[in-house]
């Protein structure tokens, strides 16, 4: 075969490309050797494997070099992410989650109940209220009239339009139809929101203590949560300065979640707006999970009222209407972001079941139910707080909202995990250890998703075990 | 500050690591320059950007080098994947899908119907049958008795146990409880199955024509579909030799889907078993999508009866029981794989709605409904085939199963996409162009999810437009 000049040239170029590729892999191997040496040194000197500062300066240097040599930012960050995982691997570090999932304990409790054990469930993040009668009936009607087909990934137009009306009525917010999406529960709203705006090798700010899904999602997509820790001493209020300082060169989003699970904290609108300003200054998307918006006992700022330039509101029917087992939520964002979320929905799920969407429309009209649920939760917060006030083994901040209390044991060296296990075994009470929500070994979460008397009995048993 | 010897040494190592990292990025830039030159050359010489052979040899070389220098296989493949994407970017190639999604046309048709247009919908992959009455009633009963809570990600034990019984009864297959998972539709079964066994930079074999979800999922997770093309001339039968040759060094799975959507093909158990042998020889996981198992009009091999060493069966309630809008499916695999799928479910979705799971149990008991649906579909295949036989503008293979016919226009240079648009505009009939299922510009899919008379009228209009 006679090669043309172009073919010969192409062959030569391909050989050079292959050589460069292999040279790249050789360098990765060399980098691993260096990292392995550093690991042994750190182990000898008892230094931690992770060093945020070292990573941050690598991120900056990589981004600068990529820009200099014409490599895309996302490719550079992805490769760096793989290099950092390799470093950890050769140093014997786990890439694992590092947090305890409330779901593990949940499965265990469900299994015990199935085997006939009577438990006081202060662990599960779902209200015990019945879903609105109108919702149940609308679902049944829709089922009986064969509303049992695929729908568009965005949701049926009747529901997206009802959501637009609801957002307008409740928050004075005008959303276009293409800025709204119905999601498979709050979970998929959060998952697809984070996956839409945070790429592999990038980072998002998360304020602890918090529901683990944000951090778990970030880790699953190869991104890094940058954690801002809040404490009981500071009444769980985040420092805006610390947030501003925590913005790394590869940070693309910040997750806000007020009323907060597990602390019940609601931050003031001054703080909320100051955080939004930080986000705007650094082009971060504000992802605001407002799942507990209707269990708020002081004014709760919403991202819909903020000046956030880029935001995603994640909402759910689970808490306000006690519809956890319906798996339906929604999100509001720019068309560009919603389109990405639609692509994921389309690929992984198709849509929320059609008849459930008809039920969701009725939920949006069931305002009285929400008010009743909210009032009941407020009474529970008051009653459980009063009961906790009688225990001098615990300290806590009375929640501003949500449906949890997050007490901390005064005892030095207290392990909430060990305590939770003992509490379940000896007192048949489930709580979630604080380690599920961040570095809170001394705290545990009490969910208020049970009738008042059950809650009080649970707290009494907690008190008895603490002594 | 006085540095210890270890600290000084660590500092030195970190500087070397940083230098190596930057050197790596510089090399990526150099590789991009070479790729850009190659791109210009290819463009001048009118050569395609992609070259499978070149990529394959890179994959092999990278894997060998990684093994030599102590870099993990997955890290090497991930980095190579990013390098290849960068090459395509600088060469102006799109990383996009390249296939037309049936969902786009679906949304368009739904919108037209909403605006009052009467259409003959031969595009949608869902049966028009009502779901079994027992299923609807079970869902309503469960709703009314407040089965409206979170369940374990695997599904309620009553349903997983019913699935075990069903698998035993129907396929003689004994699945352990931890080998079964209830999924949010067949889509999430497929998505999580593929994501569980195919990593970024890896590859899976897909036989075309096919439902686009397998290829879309692979691309979404940064993996590559290796496509085996089948043709009408070969009655849509794949060549086992071609499959064996197509196994690349980074291939980890093969997707089988019989009865096939869109061709209706069912391969013989000899071919099925030969493919399974290839998979076993190369340690591939066989992902078998058996969504249309009950619309099979000749013996249809199941992976449950095969000798596959590693497999995932994806099943769904959508087709057999006409429950598309319930979004419930299931999967069977080893505990190890199912655990990975559970992690994804837990993170993204929590569970399938509780009351729907109670409905699904009743579906498994509704065997008579399945038989009726299957018989009706068979009649439609016969009737539509007879009608098509009268059109000498089309050729087709009579389907062995599923609920589609995939005819091909005899006309040279026929564009199914243009035809589908014209058919919708002039005749109010929707079909899905063959390009949605692979490189089949001359073919289109006729879905049989409509009453016989509607189907026949639709085919008549197709015939009229073809002339």
Could you characterize the architecture of this molecule?
2 copies of one chain form a homodimer. The first copy, chain A, is of the alpha/beta class and 467 residues long. The first copy, chain A, contains 15 helices and 14 strands. Chain A has helices at residues 5-44, 52-69, 73-90, 102-114, 133-144, 157-171, 185-197, 213-220, 240-246, 269-281, 335-348, 354-365, 367-389, 416-427, 452-466, and strands at residues 120-121, 180-183, 203-208, 224-229, 251-256, 285-289, 311-316, 329-332, 394-395, 404-405, 408-409, 429-430, 432-433, 444-447. A 7-stranded mixed beta sheet of chain A has the order 2-8-7-6-5-3-4, sandwiched between helices. In chain A, helix 8 links the parallel strand 3 and strand 4 (224-229). The radius of gyration of chain A is 25 Å and the shape is globular. Chain A starts with a helix and ends with a helix. Mean pLDDT of chain A is 94; it is low at 95-100. At the A-B interface, helix 1, helix 2, helix 3, helix 4 and helix 5 of A face helix 1, helix 2, helix 3, helix 4 and helix 5 of B.
Could you give the topology of this structure?
The structure is a homodimer of 467-residue chains.
Chain A: H1 5-44, H2 52-69, H3 73-90, H4 102-114, E1 120-121, H5 133-144, H6 157-171, E2 180-183, H7 185-197, E3 203-208, H8 213-220, E4 224-229, H9 240-246, E5 251-256, H10 269-281, E6 285-289, E7 311-316, E8 329-332, H11 335-348, H12 354-365, H13 367-389, E9 394-395, E10 404-405, E11 408-409, H14 416-427, E12 429-430, E13 432-433, E14 444-447, H15 452-466
Parallel strand pairs in A: 1-12, 3-4, 3-5, 5-6, 6-7
Antiparallel strand pairs in A: 2-8, 7-8, 9-11, 10-14, 13-14
Helix pairs in contact in A: 1-3, 2-3, 5-12, 6-12, 7-8, 7-11, 13-15
């Amino acid at each position: 075969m006679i090669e043309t000049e172009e073919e010969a040239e192409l062959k030569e170029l391909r050989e050079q490309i292959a050589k460069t590729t292999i040279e790249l892999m050789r360098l990765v191997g060399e980098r691993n050797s260096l990292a392995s040496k550093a690991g042994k040194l750190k182990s000898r000197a008892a230094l931690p494997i992770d060093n945020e500062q070292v990573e941050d300066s690598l991120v900056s240097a990589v981004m600068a070099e990529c820009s200099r040599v014409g490599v895309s930012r996302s490719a550079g960050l992805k490769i760096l992410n793989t290099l950092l995982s390799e470093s950890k691997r050769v140093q014997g570090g786990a890439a694992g989650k590092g947090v305890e999932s409330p779901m593990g304990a949940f499965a265990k409790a469900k299994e015990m109940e199935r085997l006939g054990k009577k438990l006081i469930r202060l662990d599960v993040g779902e209200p015990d209220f019945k879903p609105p009668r109108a919702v149940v009936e609308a679902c049944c009607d829709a089922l009986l009239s064969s509303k049992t087909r695929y729908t568009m990934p965005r949701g049926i137009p009747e529901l997206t339009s009802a959501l637009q009306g609801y957002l307008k009525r409740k928050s004075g917010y005008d959303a276009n139809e293409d800025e709204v999406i119905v999601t498979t529960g709050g979970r998929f709203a959060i998952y697809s929101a984070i996956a839409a705006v945070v790429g592999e090798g990038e980072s998002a700010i998360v304020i602890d203590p918090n529901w683990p899904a944000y951090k778990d999602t970030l880790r699953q997509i190869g991104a890094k949560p940058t954690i801002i820790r809040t404490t009981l001493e500071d009444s769980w209020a985040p420092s805006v300065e610390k947030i501003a300082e925590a913005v790394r060169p590869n940070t693309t989003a910040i997750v806000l979640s007020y009323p907060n699970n597990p602390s019940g904290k609601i931050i003031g609108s001054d703080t909320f707006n100051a955080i939004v300003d930080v986000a705007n200054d650094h082009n971060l998307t504000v992802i605001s999970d407002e799942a507990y918006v209707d269990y708020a006992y002081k004014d709760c700022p919403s991202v819909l009222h903020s000046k956030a330039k880029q935001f995603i509101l994640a909402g759910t029917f689970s808490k306000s209407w006690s519809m956890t087992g319906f798996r339906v939520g929604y999100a509001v964002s720019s068309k560009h972001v919603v389109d990405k979320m639609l692509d994921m929905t389309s690929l992984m799920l198709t849509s929320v079941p059609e008849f459930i969407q008809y039920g969701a429309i009725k939920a949006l009209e069931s305002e009285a139910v929400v008010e009743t649920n909210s009032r009941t939760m407020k009474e529970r917060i008051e009653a459980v707080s009063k009961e906790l006030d009688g225990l001098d083994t615990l300290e806590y901040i009375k929640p501003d909202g949500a449906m949890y209390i997050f007490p901390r044991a005064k005892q030095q060296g207290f392990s909430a995990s060990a305590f939770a296990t003992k509490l379940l075994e000896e007192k048949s009470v489930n709580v979630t250890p604080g380690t599920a929500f961040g570095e809170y070994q001394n705290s545990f979460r009490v969910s208020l998703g049970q009738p008042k008397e059950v809650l009080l009995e649970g707290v009494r048993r907690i008190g008895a075990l603490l002594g």
